[in-house]
Design goal:
167 residues
């Protein structure tokens, strides 16, 4: 009788853990922002995600064509703060859109989907319009996913996500 040989489960487990840690390291900014948006959606309700997306989309032209942008100087924190203030004004202005969204039970998957799309939009805006790279060093995979070549697709994904998952 041959002694029992255990399969090399340790190597498979180690490579799986390395894969998850590598993914988490490469996309930490995306995971963190998606978690913040999901917490926002769970706390205030899914019907507040649509005004948040609309506020972010409205803040893009308001920020890029802001008449007094030169008064902010080169401080990246002030530029990011101005965009956040404009996005919050847009959120308040579009709060009436939440009455359009049915208040029936929001699915967990829908909240996670809209949160991921919104996080992608936020990171795409931060990397392409705002001076995020002066404040935070973004990993290469994150930078490649949200680069200027993909900016249009993240804008389109946010609108399509609201259309498909907002009901």
């Amino acid at each position: 009788m041959e002694p029992t040989v255990t399969p090399p489960v340790g190597d498979a487990l180690r490579s799986s853990v390395d894969l998850f840690i590598g993914f988490g390291t490469d996309f930490f900014a995306f995971i963190f922002v998606a978690a913040l948006v999901a917490a926002f959606a769970f706390y205030f309700g899914r019907d507040r995600l649509i005004p948040l997306i609309a506020g972010l989309l409205a803040a893009i032209p308001l920020y890029t064509h802001f008449a007094y942008i030169s008064m902010l100087g080169t401080n990246p924190i002030l530029h990011i703060g101005l965009f956040v203030a404009l996005a919050m004004l847009g959120l308040v202005a579009f709060m009436g859109l939440s009455s359009w969204v049915p208040s029936s039970g929001a699915g967990f998957v829908k909240i996670l989907g809209l949160s991921a799309i919104t996080a992608g939009l936020i990171l795409s805006i931060a990397l392409n319009i705002l001076p995020l790279t002066e404040v935070y060093t973004v990993s290469e995979p994150t930078h490649a996913l949200f680069s200027s070549g993909n900016f249009f697709w993240w804008l389109l994904a946010s609108v399509g996500g609201v259309f498909l998952l907002g009901k």
